[in-house]
Amino acid sequence: MNDAARVKMHARGLHAFYGRKEALCNVTLPIIDKRVTAIIGPSECGKSTFVRCLNRMHELGEGASVRGEVLLNGSDIYASGLDPAPLRRRVGLIAKRPNVFPTMNVRENVLSGLRLNGIVPADSDEVVERCLKRVSLWIDTKDRLLEPAVSLSIGEQQRLCIARTLALEPEVILMDEPCSLLDPIATAKIEDLLRDLCDTCAVLVVTHSVQQAARVSDFAAFFLLGALVEYSDTDTLFTKPGDARTEDYLTGRFG
Amino acid sequence: MVTSTFGVALGGAAGVALGFVLGMHLARMPERNRVERWLRTVVCIAAGAPPLAFALMMPYATLQRAFAALVLVFPLVTMMAEILVRRVPREVSDAALALGVPRWRALLIAVLPCAWPQIARGVAIVFTVVLFHLQGSFYETDAGGSLGQTTQDAITSLRLLVWTIASLALYALLRPFLSSLKLFR
Ligand SMILES: Nc1ncnc2c1ncn2[C@@H]1O[C@H](COP(=O)(O)OP(=O)(O)O)[C@@H](O)[C@H]1O
Ligand SMILES: [Mg+2]
Fold first, then answer.
1. DSSP class of B1
2. What does DSSP assign to residue A19?
3. For the segment A32-88, what is each residue's pLDDT rounded down to a tens digit?
4. What is the sign of the dihedral through the CA atoms of B143, B149, B151 and B157?
5. How far apart are alpha carbons A212 and A205 in whole angstroms?
6. I need a labelling partner for A227 at 20 to 30 A (CA). Which of A145, B48, B95, B148 fits?
7. What does DSSP say about strands A64-72 and A172-176: parallel, antiparallel, or unpaired?
8. Which of B77, B46, B31 is nearest to B182 (CA)?
9. In this predicted model, what pLDDT tens digit does every residue of A11-41 receive, in sequence order?
10. C-alpha span between A189 and B94 (Å, rounded)
11. Which pLDDT belongs to residue A111?
């Protein structure tokens, strides 16, 4: 397979700052289309900062700034004059803690990405059903569509957040430790879903679980102290890591 | 009597509207911006000053009451709206922004609905208190007479002026403490 031709997003020489503090230093990392890329690394090493740079959420923090470039389909998302809002619809971000809209019911949550952006779908029922089916939530919730979204279990809420993002038909989906608050069964459901999602988009998942990265990803990157240590396909990274620090981390010697 | 009640209600409603707009603006902006810090100070001064002091400038009793209601209501609503909106968990606005919703829209149609019940309750209380306050005891010369016509009114005005200055001084003294509470800033 010719992966170089299918680079969906490409961070190149990316630096990110919180005020003066540099949280990411010169990260260059491709994200391959229709594949799952995993980012692993100890906490505080800049994983969340990196994913938030990819859909321009990082810059919303007070004093936060970015240097370098991130290409999406070959064009820089940080090009001057570019409106970040439409970009965020193309590059969806799933947070660590499920953040359904507390004032909306299940159905409204699925449609929220469209409605809040002033988009009225031709057939809302179809969108709701399709998106909920895609995250295997339809059977469980089809009789509860009008109940508050916060009445779902936390694992269901996380899948609802994914459904809400899917309604916007993103090209890339970023997930920041999507399972860290979930029990093993809910985690397994999200992992199955990850494989599914890459039928239509590029998927980037941050995880603190090395095993999870090995299970779900095609490519993997190891971050340490704000820098990218190693990137390769998952098999290589896990069986023949090229860097001693990667090996130490994978064998549990730190982190 | 009826017209002045109407005036107070109208002034109060204008105060709610103004306070709401200002509160949303302050909630949307970063907390430490220069203009917003200045605006917060003005709002605090307005909250500390008896509306009568401002109302003295108006020619008719009804207008005075309406204006007094406006000045009394808007700072309270501004502060309340800002604080209540800022108290909505950050996750809500993050969720909307990550869906590509522009900032002001995210605030108005995703974050604000979470704060509505509290804001509505607060506005109701402020409004009732102000209406009640301005209706009876504030000044009795209702038949078109302006303040300061009688000596007693002059004394009342003077007393209120002293109160204004005292409350401003108190505010200045308490300011460091208040800002450490993160209510104003
Ligand atoms: N809002 C913030 N302000 C200042 N520093 C921050 C902020 N968020 C994260 N950081 C710092 O940036 C670095 C990377 O954090 P983060 O991207 O959250 O790491 P990870 O997701 O890998 O745990 C850390 O050193 C952290 O302390
Ligand atoms: Mg993180």
1. -
2. T
3. 999 999 999 999 999 999 999 999 999 998 889 999 999 999 999 999 889 999 999
4. positive
5. 10
6. B95
7. unpaired
8. B31
9. 999 999 999 999 999 999 999 999 999 999 9
10. 24
11. 96
How many residues does the structure list for chain A?
255
Q: Say which amino acid occupies A254.
A: F
Q: Tell me the DSSP string of B18-48.
A: HHHHHHHHHHHS-TT-HHHHHHHHHHHHHHH
- Does the beta carbon of B88 lie under 8 angstroms from any beta carbon of chain A? no
Average pLDDT over residues A144-167: 95
* Residue B97 touches partner A, C-beta closer than 8 Å: yes
Q: Which two tokens stand for residue A177?
A: 């430790």
Quickly list DSSP for A162-216.
Answer: HHHHHTT--SEEEEESTTTTS-HHHHHHHHHHHHHHTTTSEEEEE-S-HHHHHHH
Count the Cβ atoms, other than its own, within 10 Å of residue A247.
16
- Give residue for tokens 């090209």: A171
Taking CB atoms and an 8 Å limit, are A99 and B94 in contact across chains?
yes
Q: What contacts B6, CB < 8 A, 6 or more positions away?
A: B62
DSSP codes joined into one string, A79-124: -TT--HHHHHHHEEEE-SS----TTSBHHHHHHHHHHHTT---S-H
pLDDT means per 10 residues, chain B with 185 residues, are 71 90 87 82 80 63 79 89 92 95 90 86 77 56 50 64 68 62 36
pLDDT of B55 reads 63
DSSP 8-state class, residue A77: T
Does A181 contact B at CB distance below 8 Å?
no
Helix (H) or strand (E) holding A231: strand A227-233
Q: What is the ipTM of this complex?
A: 0.91
Looking at residue B111, the DSSP 8-state letter turns out to be I
Q: Do A88 and B110 touch (CB under 8 A)?
A: no
Please report the residues numbered 3 through 62 in chain B whose beta carbons come closer than 8 angstroms to any beta carbon of chain A: 30, 32
